[in-house]
Amino acid sequence: MEDIYIGKGPEEIPLEEIIYKQPAPPPVPTPVNKKKKRGKIRKLIKILLIIFIVFSLVISAVSAVSGYTRNNLKSNQYISKAELHNNPLITNILLIGVDGNANESSRSDSMMLVSLDYMHMKIKMTSFLRDSWVNIPSKNTYHKLNAAYAYGGSQLITDTIEYNFKVDIDHYIKVDFEMFTEIIDRLGGIDIEVTESEAKFITKTTRYSLSPGESVHLDGAKALVYSRIRKLDSDYMRTFRQRKVITAIINKIRKTSPSELINIFRNVLPLLETDLNPIELTGLLYKGGIAAMLFKIQQIRIPTDELMYADYRGSEWVEIIDLEGCQNQIYDFIYKSYNDKNSDN
Question: In sequence order, what DSSP letters do the residues of 92-144 get, joined into one string?
């Protein structure tokens, strides 16, 4: 290669003063991490396969969608939409659990808000303590939260949670114990950690005998008993057990074959009540299926310990809550990238 120099010419400038300028060497290519590249390709293929499987599942289950009970959810007349926190990338579904023999005059047994967060790729479960002392807007007076269902069914319990906690609820699904046990039985049961005190309580107070362990196999009936334990400790732990069961169900769905999931859809859909129309329900099955397969799971209870204290109101033992603190905590949990030690994969 010929040298390039700066100056009038070698005959006019002493050799030692000539400044040579060599061409810059070509850039050294960054070595490709083939293992990392293959891992990314496998992950992409897995995601595409999951999307295809879920899509096929939903298409196969559409024929059963018309068998459920549908009740329209009206706009909340007690608070404007502008006052409620919402995000188009987050879908909030209120799960209302009731006794299989319950009617509209009964109190709801459990209330859990399931948020499908497509912004942060998480499923977030928020349990509401049923003894929370809140304003029932239709009565304009304070009662326990679960009393709202007795006063106005699914519509009023949805309105009451929105009114007190300022979170926008997109849809609701009411499930009874028959549906709960059917899902778990058709999944082949779930595996869950059972403490020694929980096992002793169930064995002593029910017809079931249970042993403690980190991974105890429960069928539908035993899982129902487990999730309803209250007198052993508190309603706080009861909601925690319910979230553990829902998490176990999601984890089991991830391991269940598409054909089995189709049969489960067809059998349990007729047992639920929701405000979703068939097209909306089909869309939710698709989005929820993707979330169940890919998203991380997080959970919280409202109110948390620092935002409440127990006291009597009249003859009732209730939870007095810091309402503004609960509103802020729900907003942080649902609408931000929340980090929590109770997260699960």
Answer: EEEEEEE-TT--TTSPPSEEEEEEEETTTTEEEEEEE-TTBEEEETTTTEEEE
